[in-house]
Amino acid sequence: MGSMDNQNVVVIGGTSGIGLATAVTAASKGANVWAVSRSEDKVKTCSDSYPEITFSSLDTHNVQGLKSLFESVGAIDHIVAAATGAERTMAPFMDQTDEQFRAAFDKFWGYTHVARQGIPHLNETGSLTFISGTPARKCNPGMSSVSCTGNAIEGLTRALALEVAPKRVNAVAPGLISTGMFDSLGDNKNAALANMGKNIPLGRVGEADEVAKAIVMIMENSYITGTTIDVDGGVLLP
Ligand SMILES: NC(=O)c1ccc[n+]([C@@H]2O[C@H](COP(=O)([O-])OP(=O)(O)OC[C@H]3O[C@@H](n4cnc5c(N)ncnc54)[C@H](OP(=O)(O)O)[C@@H]3O)[C@@H](O)[C@H]2O)c1
After folding, report:
1. Cβ of 176 below 6 Å from ligand 1
2. Residue 1 lies in a domain
3. Quick one: three-class SS letters along the chain?
4. Which of 59, 62, 84 to mutate to test the pocket of ligand 1 (most atoms within 8 A of CB)?
5. Contact between 81 and 107 (Cβ < 8 Å)
6. Smallest CA separation from ligand 1 atom 25, residue
7. Structural domain span for residue 47
8. Considering the entire predicted model, what is its pTM?
9. Does 102 reside within a domain?
């Protein structure tokens, strides 16, 4: 018997990093889990590794596809919006074009699509969890687009939580987490992340399953709504 037996969980952006770790953690507690992302290759690899989870290919910007997915699942207990879903330009605001700055908000529009299509299918005590990030509230130079996107997500979290209660809406804000997001660093990934970790109070970057545990805690705690939970090794401390 698992604590999430017979619960239906849908993870958008669930084939890598935080989303995949959430799907795996929820499934290990007995939930029926559906997880999607764009890449057929990632869907195939994940399906082979985790046959207990139903993976399929879907872009978070495909509104009709989201509608069909949520309808096919039926009654849903928990939805997680974890897709990156955007091109981010890490540069000072004044050096970015309007187009580059706007592009970062594609992550936010992806989340609004998930909310609009998914919430009608959520059970009355169900939850929707977005993934924000520490730059929303502690922004280093060059991260304005990520910071503003995170603030939009955390603002939507509070607004929606009031509008759709008793359904619950929350966000989790990860700090630096070792995921596929840093694969572009290639062979330098581990060394670069270890170096970045030295400036974090806990002395290291986080792991995807440490963020997943917070997301699943939100699913299981029926009295949490409208909040953002930080999982960041202490980065937000003054
Ligand atoms: N890692 C960190 O340090 C960190 C820090 C703060 C916030 N975050 C946030 O945490 C969330 C998860 O990121 P992660 O670190 O776990 O990265 P990741 O390992 O790269 O995973 C991202 C997931 O999103 C999927 N995805 C991307 N664009 C998509 C789209 N348009 N439609 C559907 N799925 C899409 C990816 O698969 P496909 O490529 O197949 O689509 C993948 O499954 C993101 O929102 C990210 O901004 C991460």
Report:
1. yes
2. no
3. CCCCCCCEEEEECCCCHHHHHHHHHHHHCCCEEEEEECCHHHHHHHHHHCCCCEEEECCCCCHHHHHHHHHHHCCEEEEEECCCCCCCCCCCHHHCCHHHHHHCCHHHHHHHHHHHHHHHHEEEEEEEEEECCHHHCCCCCCCHHHHHHHHHHHHHHHHHHHHHCCCEEEEEEECCEECHHHHHHHHHHHHHHHHHHCCCCCCCCEEHHHHHHHHHHHHHCCCCCCCEEEECCCCCCC
4. 84
5. no
6. 13
7. 8-230
8. 0.98
9. yes
Q: How many domains does the chain have?
A: 1
Ligand 1 within 6 A of CB of 61: yes
Q: Is residue 35 part of a domain?
A: yes
pLDDT, tens digit, 9 for 90 and up, residues 222-233: 999 999 999 999
Choose which residue among 11, 16, 130, 148 to substitute to test ligand 1 binding: the one with the highest number of ligand atoms within 8 A of its C-beta. 16
Cβ of 180 below 6 Å from ligand 1: yes
- DSSP lists the bridge partners of residue 130 as 81, 171
Nearest CA to ligand 1 atom 17: 181
Domain-embedded: residue 237 = no
- Taking only the tens place, the pLDDT of each residue in 74-128 is 999 999 999 999 999 999 999 999 999 999 999 999 999 999 999 999 999 999 9
